[in-house]
Input
Amino acid sequence: MQRRDFLTIAAAGVTAASLNLPAIGRANASDLYRLKAGKATANLIGDGTGSKNCWLYNASCPGPLLRRRKGEMLNVAVTNDLSTPTTVHWHGIRNINEMDGVAHLTQPPIEPGETFLYEVPLTESGTYWYHAHTMSWEQVARGLYGPLIIDDDDDPAVNHDFTLMIDDWRLDQDGQIDDASFGSLHDWSHAGRFGNWLTVNGTSDPAVSAKPGARLRLRLISAANARIFKIKIDGAVATLIAEDGAVCRAEQIEVVTLAPGQRADLIIDMDGDSIILQDVSTGTPYPAGRIIADPNLGQAEISKTPINLAAPPPIADLTAVKVIDVHMQGGAMGNLTEAIFNGDKLPLGTLAREHKKLWAFNGIVGDYSQTLAEIQLGQVVALDVFNDTAWPHAMHLHGHHFWVLVDDPTAGAPSGRRDTWLIAAGSRARLVFVADNPGLWLFHCHMLEHAASGMGMVLAVS
Ligand SMILES: [Cu+2]
Output
């Protein structure tokens, strides 16, 4: 919270860039995508400065758009051209466990020079993303992520389908990624690593053209390490149709809150000249992209017809629910005095100084070797999460989507299922899911610094 304002470096002279993402073709024989993680330069500022110390997939920022249809396989050969191990997580996908991309839990890390073949069944449509899941607090912050869209025959008809991947980067005065601040104990014990430069699809305040009168689908994806975006939409009425890839009850919305890892799908009828997107999370509106009506593209008929959506599924039967309490403590200004780490009870100061651990679930510092609960396959589970810390946390469950129940009716529980849910400081949420996917699944904070310093454990479903 210390650096609330984005830097103003190179604020002038930024040229409009397209919102359109590069897509990579698939090799015809086996429908195989290829991603190579490597060091690359990204034009984050947009004036040609070039941020040279990025790590990207296929030298693209964000990584290439991967697009498949529901029911297909996603086959991706990931080559590690970095000098450090990596893996790829397919965020929000109800994946088979050995393809989930969590190093040391679901697969060995992909070592430098190695290639790993991910074969992911796609059982649900919607807006997802992929990102590094090894030292993600650094690898995602350097740009190792990209969008993953799964189409469905039932998708609402639109004239344009735009994906907007939003990120904040911490850049130094030369426009380079601020290397020195990686691993800052202050960030790890507070809100996480906040950036000072906002990009949408890898550039600043991009603009894209649309047919006047078009119906648009906007797919917003947050790739931030820690910042909670609030994206305000001016110039048209937006209807929220899906969150975290899953259909929700359609509702009109002016500001979309996106915690790290979350997605929101909107339908917008373009009946004016332009649509302006701004991040208003800091109190000072910050440009986040524009959609401009261009008569040269020809007129599109606004379909004033209602948006046909399937209803979100009703919540699972809770009569035989297995309740798992998750008491989250730790961090700065919290009430955690000591916690168990590798079998020893240690004071928080020792944990912080000697082990860089700051957070605990139920008095135990979390990591991928800690089992939070063993769950029978098919069981209905409620994670009763109490955020007993001074910070919000974006809790992400691998391999499943959950319904969200909250005590406070004004807190606005979603109508559909989520894979990532923001829990405010001092509040509680009940996350309900059917454990119908066997394997070892992480439940962790998607503020990536928090995950690295204790906010994550394993749910073993068998
Ligand atoms: Cu957190």
User: Anything to note?
Assistant: The pocket of copper (II) ion is lined by residues 393, 445, 447, 450, 455 (CB under 6 Å).
